[in-house]
């Protein structure tokens, strides 16, 4: 507790700052049942060529944060109530609707989880890919189709020339996700947000799609935000990880440190619940309880009802992000114990 | 109309003897299970799968459907005789020969004569024009007005939706026949346009509701969100991504409604507030004949039969189209 230096995000002016800098973002959904606070002060940043993995369960606010960054929150009921989204030096929240629309697709693009439902069933893929060029670049339909073929080749879709007139349902899952990636890549945006891009795919195809994404990212030096709940997907491709819980970031870290020594009990729980070969035959660890209802987030640390280390202070005080090392932070009052504890899951006692 | 010949090469790889459904399924599942494009770099059978859109799929279904073919043949015939009635009816529908009033069929006059000695056959043929014109124009008007208003309400929601829904409730509340008696009894114009206008006025809320609902459903699809995330504006999302996916129910209901508008025209004409003589209309003839049903049933039989057949054809067409566009309903 002595080194409770709160991670501040004061540094980093507009020029020469990171590609994307999200500061103290708050999003709430005003529903009939009450106000659901989906995002409660998220800070993260992504540089060009960097991959940030945002990790968390369903309802942790990771997708909502992404939608807020893209400016595609359904509003109402969703509202950004506080914070800044600084992208290429401009605060996205201060732009007009039309200015933001021009940023979407051209400067930042998004890849969705289920490529089948994210592609329009009545348009063939060539038309959908080409649309990027007709809308943003004003190309003719013929030029756009040629560009579409080029894009499909770039994401390694075989026989692109013949398949450009095919409809989404005529592609396999992996191929569809490639089409989605091609659409997002079309205008060579500086930032791509991939919202669980491989969740709907077979395991073997997952790896290929992730590789493709990583290759393209390197090639174009894009910033990539990879939203996932799958720790396995993250390990190879991410540079840093932000773990979200109940709308807050509970731990940020370079990717390799987090696997070796998690600094938050929630991260530790997630890691311990991955099946491992050397634990064959043993019961798989699971984090107890359920994620909190966003209408009634528990006071203090939101994770306290499920935390094996919870003390009185956790039920009253919201833990700030403590600096664990130069580039790591954890929002746990007892991060030292968590990092120091190398043994089996803490609540085995 | 293409024949449904099982050996027709144009109809794709269909196993002889197998139903077309079985053949199609096999082809589809082959393509799925044989696909190892990710690991082998090429897709077996990829190019073989010809691009198939929703519409071309629906067309495949339709042209194999006997209900569709029969109804389309009837409708094409109706359209033909309403454009060129003279080709199959050489007499004048208005020429009256009172000596023959209510006379039965005779050579050259297969359907007999009406009260004023006009040839019933000729009048039935000429009556198609009024029915088809009213049906088609009313449907076009209703579909255009209803889907634009309903679609915008569904897309934008909010106050526009609230106001429009209340207005359409008001029009829904007006009984059609009563409304017709009130609105059309003051009209002296004998063309079809007052009748068409009245039908559009009362008919659009039906389509608006359907369009609104299906736009709301289509709007929630991920691809609309994805289009938005890639920079599409409102008009592009609405016209290119939502409308084509929301239009099917409107087409189906519109087709069925066409039949009911034809029936409604006859109803209004029967009541004396629809089309007025000298316009030739099945409804007017039915009305004239109804007093003479005991002496001269043929006067009623033929126009009523033509009307029933026409309405039936459009309703059958609507059914077939619905089956093709929304296979889940089957």
TrEMBL record, chain A:
ABC transporter domain: residues covered: 22-271
Keyword Chaperone annotated: no
Entry keyword set: ATP-binding, Cell membrane, Membrane, Nucleotide-binding, Transport
Location of the protein in the cell: Cell membrane
Matches recorded under InterPro entries: AAA+_ATPase, ABC_Ni/Peptide_Import, ABC_transporter-like_ATP-bd, ABC_transporter-like_CS, Oligopep_ABC_C, P-loop_NTPase
One CC-aspect GO term: plasma membrane
Single GO MF annotation: ATP hydrolysis activity
Any Gene Ontology biological process: peptide transport
Primary location: membrane
PROSITE patterns linked: ABC_TRANSPORTER_1, ABC_TRANSPORTER_2
Membrane topology, record value: Peripheral membrane protein
Family: Belongs to the ABC transporter superfamily.
Protein name, per record: Dipeptide ABC transporter (ATP-binding subunit)
Organism expressing this protein natively: Actinacidiphila bryophytorum
UniProt gene name: dppD
Automatic annotation (TrEMBL), chain B:
Family: Belongs to the binding-protein-dependent transport system permease family.
Disordered as annotated region, ranges: 1-52
UniProt xrefs under PANTHER family: ABC TRANSPORTER PERMEASE PROTEIN (PTHR43386:SF6), OLIGOPEPTIDE TRANSPORT SYSTEM PERMEASE PROTEIN APPC (PTHR43386)
Gene Ontology CC entries for this record: plasma membrane
Subcellular location, principal: membrane
GO BP terms, alphabetized: transmembrane transport
Membrane-topology descriptor: Multi-pass membrane protein
Annotated PROSITE patterns: ABC_TM1
ABC transmembrane type-1 domain ranges (all copies): 128-318
Name of this chain's protein: Oligopeptide transport system permease protein
Organism: Actinacidiphila bryophytorum
Keywords, ordered alphabetically: Cell membrane, Membrane, Transmembrane, Transmembrane helix, Transport
Transmembrane regions: 67-84, 132-155, 167-186, 246-264, 300-321
Pfam families xref list: BPD_transp_1, OppC_N
InterPro entries: BP-dependent_transpt_permease (IPR050366), MetI-like (IPR000515), MetI-like_sf (IPR035906), OppC_N (IPR025966)
Localization terms from the record: Cell membrane
CDD domains linked to this entry: TM_PBP2
